[in-house]
Amino acid sequence: MFGSSNVPFSLRAQLLTFTAALVMALSCTVLLLVLFSSGSAIRETVNQQMRDGVENFISAIYARREQLVSNASLLVSDFGFKQAVASNDADTIQSMLENHGSRVKADVMVIVDLKGRVVTSTSPQLTRGQVFGYESATQQVRKGEVFADFLVIGDAIFHMVLVPVRTPRLSAMAGIGIRVRPAGIREWISEPNIHLTFANGLPGEEAQWVVETSLPDLSSVVEAIRSPDNLVSLIRLPFQRVQTYSSREIDLSSESSSVKVFMSEDLSPYFTSYEVIRNQILLIAILVLIVAVIGSFIISQRLTKPLVILAAKAREIARGVYSDMSEIPATSSDIATLTRAFRRMKVDLAEREERILFQASHDSLTGLLNRDSMIEAVREVADSDRQFMLLGLNLVGFKTINDTLGIEIGDECLVTVAKRLQKVALDGIASRHSADEFSLLLPITGEQETTAQKILMCQRVLNEVSAPMQIDDISLTVDYRAGFIVFPDQAESAEQLLRRGKVALEHAITTSTPLYYFREGQDKVHLKKVKILRYLKETLQNDDDQLEMYYQPKYNVRTGQIEKAEALIRWFHPEEGFIPPDMFIELAEQTGLIGLVTSWVIGRVLDDQAEMKRMGISLQLSINMSAQDLSNDNLR
Fold it and tell me: Region 500-529: what's the mean pLDDT?
């Protein structure tokens, strides 16, 4: 997970985001499952209740019909009623209709002649001589059959039965009906959320729309009639209306009547129960989300707090600061393991850094200071205003020990010498500069006030260093060349002290002096030699005609002729002027440049001899060579 600039989010943010997303996903999944399962169950319940309602209603209709047929048959079977119909005694017929209607609790009683006109009735909507209006019904009765259906009479709907009146021949039709009223509808259906609507057609089909219903108002009737026959969905969008009813038309299979019967089920209880379940799930989901977020925050806090501290410790370690890690809380076994690993890493890094720093400042074999560290140590001691001596030491013949006895013996010899030097050194300050070159600081006390006393002290140290040593049953004795200088008498700074100490040691080496005491002005001579050596390297590399060859002839007294000549090198520097051969040749031998000088001389002499031959001069030329040239394989 990444934020701006492709930077990952924190662990705490990732954990909280994941927990919230997981709880929301689970809540949505549970909610959808409940909704779908509830919708399926409710749709099945609605279907079942509607099926049961239709069956109960049809059963009630048939029972009411049988009752009406029975009541009508009882009327037309009465002899007095037949006689009154046969004699067309209207008053008697009217009286008998009213009495019989009162006994059977009928809302309308009517006699219709065979022409379909009303003879008499108990309803003001059916007047004498009025056409009954339902030709198919009267035609069915004229055939001797019984007619039963819902009919609209005036502004009301009646459940009517028409039966033939025989006196003994068919002479009229007697009708008995019960008005459909909202209060009486409940006699046909017992479920409180199921309603019946009786109407002479759909809304807008009839000019005079007659409706009898158990619904509260006409708008509910219109809405119910136009509703689908089942629950479409419990889920609705904010701008969608709730489906209030589920309705279906009951087919009574009658062509005589225009009355339609609709059964409607009120769905509001199902939506109410669904909303309760939905709200409960949402409430539980919110509570779970809050608990999960709080728990995740606490866990992430316990997890990230030690990680933040460890990150800060890691940055400190990166800066080389190895602070204490005891304050890191072990909030879990994993954090405890990580903390232990960090502590181990800190210890390992500190030890490794200590080793690296030691190796960077000390000689790896002897453990003495190296050259750079020696300079810092000398500078610190010099800044302390103490008086001391710098003693430089070179082991003579150490290469022979390595070559004859082996490197292991040579290394042990160096380690032994280093231990002896460090033992007597001021504050243990001693260093190894090269394979066989050492230096150390020696304290000056009140007993070493004179130069002779200082020399005596250095000699005692050298005697202790060169004392016989036993290495692998081999007794070794090392010789030495040493030079020393006193601070601050002979040097004003640590750098000057080290430079002059090096000069004193080199003088001891070149003059094979066991112990040499630095003298004033000697560093100037040394600097001049260093400058001459630099000039010599440059002129050998550039071949800039500063070096010249002179030939000293050799006269043969027997022949009286010059047959040979000795080649002599001369150096004329543009700034230093003439530099004597004994000065630069000696320096070249001491520094290993003599091979380059000899090579230059040979090349120049050969060129000059060739030139002499072209000029007709035949001389045997001789060259002076250094003893070091004899070991040069290129000259063989």
Answer: 82
The DSSP call for residue 254 is -
Residue 348 vs residues 312, 336, 340: alpha-carbon distances, Å: 18, 18, 12
CB atoms within 10 A of CB 478: 20
Q: Quote the Cα angle for 481-486-489, to 5°.
A: 150
- What is the SS3 assignment for 236? coil
Extract the tokens encoding 406.
């082996």
Determine contact, residues 9/1, Cβ cutoff 8 Å: yes
List, as one string, the DSSP characters of 598-628: HHHHHHHHHHHHHHHHHTT---EEEE---GG
**Is residue 87 within 8 Å of residue 165, measured between CB atoms?**
no
Q: Quick check: 258 and 152 in contact, CB under 8 A?
A: yes
Nearest 5°: phi and psi at 261? -115, 125
Cis check: omega of the bond before 203, within 30 degrees of 0: no
Residue 540 in tokens: 């050998």
Residue linked to tokens 């009406």: 68
User: Strand 620-623 vs strand 561-573: parallel, antiparallel, or unpaired?
Assistant: parallel
Chain-wide mean pLDDT for the chain? 83
Nearest to 363 by CA among 353, 376, 377, 373: 373
Per-residue tokens: 113: 């002649």
Q: Taking CA 420 as the corner, what is the angle to CA 415 and CA 426, rounded to the nearest 5 degrees?
A: 120
Give the count of alpha carbons within 13 A of 618, CB side only.
1
Residue 329's closest CA among 345, 310, 312, 315? 310
Q: CA 415, CA 429: separation in Å to the nearest integer?
A: 15
The tens digit of pLDDT for each residue in 69-116 reads 999 888 888 888 888 888 888 888 889 989 998 998 999 999 999 888
Task: For tokens 């689970």, name the residue.
Answer: 26
pLDDT band at 2 (very low <50, low <70, confident <90, very high): very low
Contact status, residue 565 vs residue 552, Cβ threshold 8 Å: yes
Single-letter code of the amino acid located at 395: L
Cα–Cα distance for residue pair 366/428, rounded to 1 Å: 13
Strand partners, 390: 441, 485
pLDDT in tens, 175-211: 999 988 877 777 777 778 888 888 887 776 655 677 8
Amino acid found at 28: C
